[in-house]
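Discussion board: Methods & Data

I've been asked by a reviewer to show the raw model output for two of the constructs in my manuscript, not just the figures. I'm not sure how much to include, so I'm pasting the format here to get opinions. Each protein appears as its amino acid sequence followed by a line of discrete structure tokens. Is this the kind of thing reviewers expect to see in a supplement, or should I convert it first? Here is construct A:
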Amino acid sequence: MPRSKPLPAASLHVVLALLDGELHGYALMRRVDELSGGAVRMGPGTLYGTLNRLVEGGLIEETTDRSPRTDNERRRYYDLTPNGRAVAIERAQAVEPQQRVKAASAASRSRRLRASIVTAIR
């Protein structure tokens, strides 16, 4: 599969959050927060602007009317299109090695910090 063009950070977070399936706006904000470990907190303006761009780009679609809803009628639901799913999977595979490098780096910093604290206490 040819590589797709890079996604802006907000778009990347949204498509990765939708890999698990359809979500409404507020649930998307919570899922992005959860997946990022609290590092990314999208406000409504960023989220809905991003959703509109992703819909226009054909990566996601609004699915509100796809099935009957028992919750608040004002909620809009979104899901990945087949192309959006392919892009999200490609990005997830690229992000995963970067996350492992960051985690290893953080663990190394943590070990060094503990060692310096132990040394300072002695």
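Construct B, same format:
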Amino acid sequence: MVSATAKRAADERRELRLLDAVTAGPKSRRQELRRARRPRQHGCWDHLIVAPLWVSYQANLGTLLRTALAVKVTAVIMPERQEVEVTPAVVRSSAGAAEHLMISRVPNLARAIDELKEAGLWAVGLDVRGGRPYDEADLSGPIALVVGSEGSGLRRLVREHCDLLVHLPMAGPTESLNAAVAGSIALYHVFRSRGPSPIQGTHVE
């Protein structure tokens, strides 16, 4: 039987791996992320990371960041070569939410996904060609949600590094939704899948 002390030590090691995966910055930024985590049952920590891929429009990125703040996303990671950066226009589109989120840019997203998995998160890819409908998947644990790019979805290498692929079923002639809408729907599904939450509303001017 694993002792409580050993379990806490293992949880702490996973926590540090998570901090390293989402930020390569100074220790102060890792401490900031540590404060952002929220308690889960049984003394562990539930994290929700969102990774939007190659979002094409500033307004869409801003919308997704606004949703991320609303559901208490732990951190946002984006590829360094992302077409759209977090500019003042994105901050305005997010209604200021971008200024309250930890946002990191990573040179190799597939490697970052692997590091998040080593830290105990499940990598879930949201893709128009995904496996199961998003609302049939168990997304109640620590999740890294990887949102496919607009038009082409997830790249092959990223798809292969995900633990699970999900999609949003489409009933009409539209083949897909833009990344902001699709990502927001999936984020709220993850949020609701975790049951009653002590999270309070965050007011953003």
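Answer (T.O., handling editor elsewhere):
This is acceptable in a supplement if you add a one-line summary per construct. For B, something like: The chain has one domain: 4-193.
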